[in-house]
Automatic annotation (TrEMBL):
Belongs to the peptidase M76 family. It comes from Pogonomyrmex barbatus. Its EC number is 3.4.24.-. Transmembrane segments: none annotated. The lineage of its organism: Eukaryota, Metazoa, Ecdysozoa, Arthropoda, Hexapoda. GO terms for biological process: mitochondrial protein processing; mitochondrial proton-transporting ATP synthase complex assembly. GO terms for molecular function: metal ion binding; metalloendopeptidase activity. InterPro entries: Peptidase_M76_ATP23. It comes from the Eukaryota. The keyword Metal-binding applies. This is Mitochondrial inner membrane protease ATP23. It is an enzyme of class 3 (hydrolase). It holds the Pfam family Peptidase_M76. One of its GO terms (cellular component) is mitochondrion. Keywords: Hydrolase, Metal-binding, Metalloprotease, Protease.
Amino acid sequence: MVRGVLLHEMIHMFDYCRNKLDMKNIDHLACTEIRAANLGHCSFMSSLLQGDSSLINIKATHQNCVKHKAKLSVMAVHKVSDAVANAAIERVFTKCYNDLEPIGRRIRRNSLDMPRAYAEGHLYGYDT
């Protein structure tokens, strides 16, 4: 849980520095929430627990989880309706869902993704 929260905050800080994130802009907020959910929060198990899962279409399951978590965050921060939050998410979803920086991959639980992402950092220009 702590690791997910830290990763979530890291994504927001990265977006603030790289993309000049403006939290007052609902599209910016939707994008950073999509990226945070995509890279750190959504897994098949979390999707199953929130009712967004499908054993037939795993990719759609992950995307639905990302959209759901991003929508809840946008609604909480901007105090907007479900429809307004959904519209913002749909406007930016494809671009933001496909943006895997600064990790370069979606982190799966109980996998070697974290050490691999760290080891591949130099490929993305992140020197330690």
